[in-house]
Design a protein that fits this description.
mainly alpha; 434 residues; two-stranded antiparallel ribbon
Amino acid sequence: MADGVAYTEEFGSRGWFLLRPHAVGRTIRTRTLGLGATVRAYNELAVPGLGGIWFGKPLVLALVGIDLAERSGSQPIVVANAIEAIGCKVALAHRRWVAHPMLRGSQKLKRHGAGSEAFKTVAAPGYYVSQTMRQQTIQPLVSLGLVNARNDRFNSFTVSEAGACLLAAFYSSYRPSKVLLDAYLMRWVKGESLNLGSSTARQALSPDVRLPKECRLQLINRLRAPDGVHGSVRRLEALEWMKTLNEGSRISWERPPAMLARDHWLDLSEGAAFTQVRDSAIAVLNCLESLLGRTSTARLKLSQGDERLEGHLDSLRHLARAFLGGERDKQFTREDARSFCLDCCDESDVSLIRMLVMRDGRVLRLSGNDVVPGHAFVQGANSMADGTEGDRSNDEAQRADGVKWPAGASYRLGNLYSLWHDLGGNVGMFDYAS
């Protein structure tokens, strides 16, 4: 579950689940219910500092962009986006333009055709997707100590000592045209026409080609390293837990793993319970949107009964009470989550619907005692997904980690499981390109 805003440059502007594709614009059509800070907090409590990454290559490619930008006097965002774009393009061309979870832009990049690989062209706005993998790396680049950051903006990042060691291992692994990779790419950034689809260059730049062994070892060590805050302890605990799991492992909140501290496990289960409440609230609004779309007057009375809507409302109350656990004075990690769940226990259908529509305000809004279309309402549109994590373009393939996580479990658990296997575990779960 995300905060509902398209990627920003601030830390933690991600959410709780993997995004499912929408047919309409994400920024406007994503419902946040004013709970962005809440879900970001639960997300960070689950696996601190991980951002949205689930495999290692995007971290290194983003770091390459920062390094080349610093050397060429360019903006890191521009260079990093171009590096990722050309990497995805050559990878997709190698795969005959079949979408893949590690790649983006399978439709958009194909339309450019061959001969559009000059840096100036690739770096131009609109060439590549708006939601890049680079944006998922902002937090982990800092938390893993790979960059020096004056603030939380990607353009302020410079390569740290640890980042330079990682880049040295990466650059030295590839020699396109018998030139070290960084020198080769610098020629491209400065305007020289190069064959970035050559076998060596493609393997270096393609996100779906596994990192060299030395790079993987360094990233595992960075995941384990302390970052100066208590969050690194939780990240290390979670990493040790991932090592004990296999595809098909079934996780239950009743069986906490021995390596996780009790408060960590409680935060995970609390966050999952809250996620189910929020998703149920989204289901209520989706149902209302569907009902409103079938009216001839574009107005829906708050008191208008509907059996399906009543079922969603009852489910929402049930999940909210389960989150509260019958102890309304108990301590919760997030008081705002408790407050929202208390509101969701309202026995009055009219009051509960009113509260949810007021929190929506974009797709649905109130006009007196009626629900009416908001500025993001689209007649006949499919009901919206919630503001879920990943923010992939709508032509991208989705991946699954194979573990049976309990309902509402943080997407970062699945991401860390995948990341661990990408860096050193069961590589057979990935469809890497050769």
